[in-house]
């Protein structure tokens, strides 16, 4: 079984130092991801979804961030203990990331071709990578580098046509502003998957897009996952997207994974009061007026989080121990269904 | 049958595009290109569309925050476009707007008390202790507390800020609220709170809503009737029931099928549209949706522009399929 475990995060604690004090962003995150899974990481703004994902690639900005405890195992090795060069190679070869805003993820002053060639080149070892990126377009004048660049360019073209950019040979010389939002996201997907990644971290990949474009991009991701045998960590606050794409779901609240299970378990039989509240808050087909309910209150300030379970001030089932004891550890309540709540032991 | 509160006839808004050495006008972006609407007293009317479809421009031109290029806007039978700026200001108390982004629509240097009271001061409706009492009442109506009055916007969460925006909009006892993506910037658990508040307020104060959103689930939840916009035109208009259960226009069908449903067992027959909406507005005299339409007939769709016709009672569609 262990060989199938791709990512395991154990009791990860992450603090951010701010001018107002220490913000406890992650407070004991536990997460397991199996090979071949599409895992949805769900939660509201500021609950630590993105930071959890960034910690897998060790991209959390430190300082101001500070990992104060825990382990992040990727294919059995703790990424927190790796050297910078080992990390670079891991990111280059095994990990792929796409982000929410395709506009800010691309450099406006370079053509997408140049940007893709840089990145594809950097997936190789350091000496070649630096020669490629230091010289930029001038690299074409140096014979050895020209060969490398040509190889990278071919790969870029191949990926661009794969993600559905028509007339890739011409468009590769275009600049980001010449692409629409959906097309930019395709360019980013093409760039991210140009190596041989095993894990794709997709952070709100369709949040900035319209519904009809979102459908196109989700379909594309589904196809590529099949084709390239990828595992995906899909971060989103859109429960509809999760229901559509994911087999497994982890629900986060204020820096803790409060519930983890199959999509069916989470949507049909949510157990944690927060998950139950979330499900009640979304209108779906056939919801009548007045039937949805918000969760009273708002997300806690992580500079001064409530003691005990961080959800207890908003929880309708809160008991005295919820405020007194440290946050509950995850309890197994069904096949692969875990909940962190005192209601369940 | 309820009375028509707001009627929009042939509304157009073209934004000039400048270019060249002397910033000459080289073309127009047809953000709104001939929209007809009638909103009934007490209903929630939804305006849906993707970004660039012109829905926000409709909302803003109705209030004349943007001057329309052409068309009539009749509020209780009176054409707002004919009014002078100062006459219009009087009418704005009857229609108020709530904006998408609760972070940028509140002045960061004002306390909540001043923000909510400002419309009353500007319109000289109240001052002194009457103003104070009115502001307290409004704060209570939207579910905020009295000790919030002396705080500044940055001290509030997104949901609370949207409540402040709602309180400010209600200050002048409007008949109608124009809500431009009021919950898009909010998390789901808070979105539900705000939607709930809007429904309660509507019942209590007999408000009419023009609800602009790209979120079909929210529109379905809160609206009675809905119009779909695409490149400045309405493609389909009808009751929420009709549109969501029996969509007629190919665009509506595709959009509804592409809407992710929060149910892992739900299997949609997805229609994935090719291409993207062009923000430059459509060509004259052709169906604007034709380039992306899965069922287009080149002969008709690229020659004639279909008009909005009533197919079933109260259900209007602009498509050659139903000619």
Provide the fold topology.
The complex is a heterodimer of chains A (345) and B (323).
Chain A (H helix, E strand, L loop, with lengths): L4 E14 L2 E14 L3 E5 L6 H8 L8 E10 L2 E2 L5 H10 L1 E4 L13 H11 L3 H10 L7 H20 L5 H4 L9 H12 L6 E5 L7 H18 L2 E6 L2 H7 L2 E6 L2 E7 H6 L4 H9 L38 H5 L6 E4 L2 E3 L6
Parallel strand pairs in A: 3-8, 3-9, 6-7, 7-8
Antiparallel strand pairs in A: 1-2, 1-4, 4-5, 9-10, 10-12, 11-12
Chain B lengths: L3 E16 L4 E17 L3 E5 L6 H8 L7 E6 L2 E2 L5 H8 L2 E4 L13 H11 L5 H14 L16 H13 L5 E5 L7 H18 L2 E6 L2 H7 L2 E6 L2 E7 H6 L4 H9 L39 H4 L7 E4 L2 E3 L6
Parallel strand pairs in B: 3-8, 3-9, 6-7, 7-8
Antiparallel strand pairs in B: 1-2, 1-4, 4-5, 9-10, 10-12, 11-12
Helix pairs in contact in B: 3-4, 3-5, 4-5, 5-6
3D structure, described in words:
The complex is a heterodimer of chains A (345) and B (323). Chain A has 345 residues and is of the alpha/beta class. Chain A has helices spanning 49-56, 84-93, 112-122, 126-135, 143-162, 168-171, 181-192, 211-228, 239-245, 263-268, 273-281, 320-324, and strands at 5-18, 21-34, 38-42, 65-74, 77-78, 95-98, 199-203, 231-236, 248-253, 256-262, 331-334, 337-339. The relative contact order of chain A is 0.14. In chain B, 30% of the residues lie in helices and 25% in strands. Chain B has helices at 55-62, 85-92, 112-122, 128-141, 158-170, 188-205, 216-222, 240-245, 250-258, 298-301; strands spanning 4-19, 24-40, 44-48, 70-75, 78-79, 95-98, 176-180, 208-213, 225-230, 233-239, 309-312, 315-317. In chain B, a hairpin with a 2-residue loop joins strand 9 and strand 10 (233-239). The chains are: A alpha/beta (345), B alpha/beta (323). Chain A binds chain B through residues 44-45, 180, 182-183, 210-216, 218-219, 237-244, 246, 263-264, 267-268, 277-285, 287, 289-290, 292-296, 298-299, and chain B through 50-51, 157-160, 187-196, 199, 214, 216-218, 220-222, 244, 254-255, 258-266, 270, 272-273, 276-277.
């Amino acid at each position: 079984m262990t060989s199938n475990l791709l990512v395991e995060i154990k009791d990860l604690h992450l603090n951010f130092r701010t001018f107002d004090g220490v913000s406890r962003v992650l407070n004991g995150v536990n997460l397991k991801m199996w090979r071949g899974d599409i895992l949805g990481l769900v939660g509201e703004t500021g609950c630590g979804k993105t930071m959890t994902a960034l910690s897998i690639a060790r991209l959390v900005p430190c300082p101001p961030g500070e990992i104060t405890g825990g382990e992040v195992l990727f294919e059995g090795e703790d990424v927190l203990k790796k050297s910078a060069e080992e990390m670079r190679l891991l990111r280059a070869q095994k990990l792929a990331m796409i982000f929410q805003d395709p506009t800010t993820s691309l450099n406006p002053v370079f053509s997408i071709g140049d940007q893709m060639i840089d990145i594809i080149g950097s997936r190789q070892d350091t000496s070649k990578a630096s020669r490629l990126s230091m010289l930029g377009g001038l690299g074409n004048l140096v014979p050895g580098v020209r060969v490398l660049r040509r190889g990278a360019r071919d790969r870029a073209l191949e990926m661009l046509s794969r993600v559905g950019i028509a007339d890739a040979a011409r468009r590769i010389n275009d600049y980001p502003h010449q692409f629409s939002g959906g097309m930019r996201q395709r360019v980013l997907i093409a760039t991210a998957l140009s190596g041989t990644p095993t894990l794709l971290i997709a952070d709100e990949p369709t949040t900035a897009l319209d519904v009809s474009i979102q459908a196109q991009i989700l379909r594309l991701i589904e196809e590529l996952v099949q084709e390239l045998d990828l595992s995906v960590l899909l971060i989103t606050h859109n429960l509809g997207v999760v229901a559509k794409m994911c087999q497994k779901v982890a629900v986060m609240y204020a820096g803790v994974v409060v519930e983890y299970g199959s999509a069916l378990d989470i949507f049909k039989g949510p157990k944690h009061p927060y998950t139950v509240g979330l499900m009640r808050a979304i209108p779906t087909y056939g919801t009548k007026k007045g039937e949805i309910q918000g969760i009273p209150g708002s997300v806690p300030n992580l500079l001064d989080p409530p003691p005990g379970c961080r959800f207890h001030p908003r929880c309708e089932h809160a008991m005295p121990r919820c405020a007194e004891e440290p946050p509950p550890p995850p309890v197994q309540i069904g096949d692969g269904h875990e909940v962190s709540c005192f209601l369940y032991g | 049958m309820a009375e028509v509160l707001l009627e929009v006839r042939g509304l157009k808004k073209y934004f000039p595009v400048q270019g060249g050495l002397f910033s000459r006008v080289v073309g127009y972006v047809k953000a709104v290109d001939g929209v007809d609407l009638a909103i009934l007293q007490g209903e929630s009317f939804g305006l849906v569309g993707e970004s660039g479809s012109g829905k926000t421009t409709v909302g803003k031109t109705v209030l004349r925050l943007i001057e329309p290029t052409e068309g009539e806007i009749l509020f209780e039978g009176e054409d707002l476009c004919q009014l002078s700026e100062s006459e219009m200001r009087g009418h704005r108390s009857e229609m108020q707007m709530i904006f998408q982004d609760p972070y940028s629509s509140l002045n960061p240097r004002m306390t909540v008390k001043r923000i909510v009271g400002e419309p009353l001061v500007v319109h000289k409706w109240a001052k002194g202790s009457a103003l104070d009492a009115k502001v307290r009442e409004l704060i209570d109506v939207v579910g905020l507390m009295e000790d919030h009055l002396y705080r500044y916007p940055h001290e509030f969460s997104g949901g609370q800020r949207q409540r402040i925006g709602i309180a400010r909009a209600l200050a002048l006892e409007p008949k109608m609220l124009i809500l431009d993506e009021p919950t898009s910037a909010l998390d789901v658990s808070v979105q539900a709170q705000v939607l709930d508040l809007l429904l309660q307020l509507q019942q209590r104060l007999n408000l009419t809503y023009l609800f602009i959103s790209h979120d079909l689930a929210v529109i379905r939840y809160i609206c009675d009737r809905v119009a779909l916009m695409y490149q400045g035109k309405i493609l389909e208009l009808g009751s929420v029931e009709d549109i969501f259960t029996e969509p007629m226009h190919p665009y509506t069908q595709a959009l509804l099928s592409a809407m992710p449903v929060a149910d892992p067992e739900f299997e949609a027959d997805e229609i994935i549209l090719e291409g993207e909406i062009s923000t430059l507005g459509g060509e004259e005299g052709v169906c604007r949706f034709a380039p992306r339409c899965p069922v287009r007939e080149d002969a008709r769709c690229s020659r004639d522009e279909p008009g909005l016709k009533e197919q079933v009672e109260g259900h209007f569609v602009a498509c050659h399929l139903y000619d």
